[in-house]
Amino acid sequence: MLASVVGFVSCKKDDNTGDDNNGVDTSKKEKLLTQVKMTTPLSAKVIDASYNDALNLDKVKSSSDGSIVSVKKYNYNGSLLVDCKWYSDEAMTNQIGSNSYTFNASGQLTKMIEIDGADTITYTVSWNSGKISEYTAINASAPFTDTRHVFEWTGDNVTKETLYERDSTGNFVSAGYNIFTLDDKINPYTIKYIPELEDVSFFNKNNILKIENFDPSGNPIAITTFTYVYDDKGYPVTGTFDYGYISGQYEFKYGEFSKQ
């Protein structure tokens, strides 16, 4: 789940009520994911998230073994996400990449352009009945790395992802597929925006418990498993993961925030 944890967003509004303050009910609080720790026998990674006054994602800081890996700053036009700039330092003076976003009239992400070093990757997203049905990732400088991802849904969760890659003639051919098993608890990565696309955790209502990887012929390749301990509201607070070749633990922290 940590592959794209840049996608921290609001989880759920509590049911507290109170008087409006200039049209904003400041007593209604949202429970937001503020930190994820992932530890393995080899490393300790920490991801911290902060939010702006409108409770939209503001910054995500990633560190590994105490050293900063990146800081991502999200920028808005009103409440609409415009872009994200990546920096290698906490002072945000050394920019190393960026994402820019295009949304349709329904607020659905339709295009993301990622600049990462010499690579410019354009993601084009399709929707069906309010859910992501597929996206393509086209790398202008390295077309052999282009991919297409097609999603199948069961209720509010992605349960199958089929991956396509370019063959030697430039056509997309199947590269295998993933099958997902999920719990019925609250996913702390619930989507308000989709800042990145590579992790289906951001699409789902619930949490992934198992990922089964298959080759194009349906032969099993690998299995990844997750377990969680939940609080009394159904939010995961700790967890474990097992990739087969390495395993470790998660720790989730939350805060409660009011809109300003």
Annotation field: number of helices: 0
Mean pLDDT: 87
Please give the number of β-strands: 19
The coarse overall form would be globular
- Could you give the distance between the termini? 30 Å
Quick rundown:
With 260 residues, this protein is an all-beta fold.
Key words describing this protein structure:
260 residues, mainly beta, 16-stranded antiparallel beta barrel, two-stranded antiparallel ribbon, globular
Fold topology:
Elements: E1 10-13, E2 20-21, E3 24-25, E4 29-39, E5 44-51, E6 57-64, E7 67-77, E8 80-87, E9 95-103, E10 109-116, E11 119-128, E12 131-139, E13 147-154, E14 157-166, E15 172-182, E16 208-214, E17 220-230, E18 236-242, E19 247-258
Antiparallel strand pairs: 1-4, 2-3, 4-5, 4-19, 5-6, 6-7, 7-8, 8-9, 9-10, 10-11, 11-12, 12-13, 13-14, 14-15, 15-16, 16-17, 17-18, 18-19
How would you explain this protein's 3D organization?
This protein has 260 residues and is mainly β. It is 0% helix and 60% strand. It contains no helices and 19 strands.
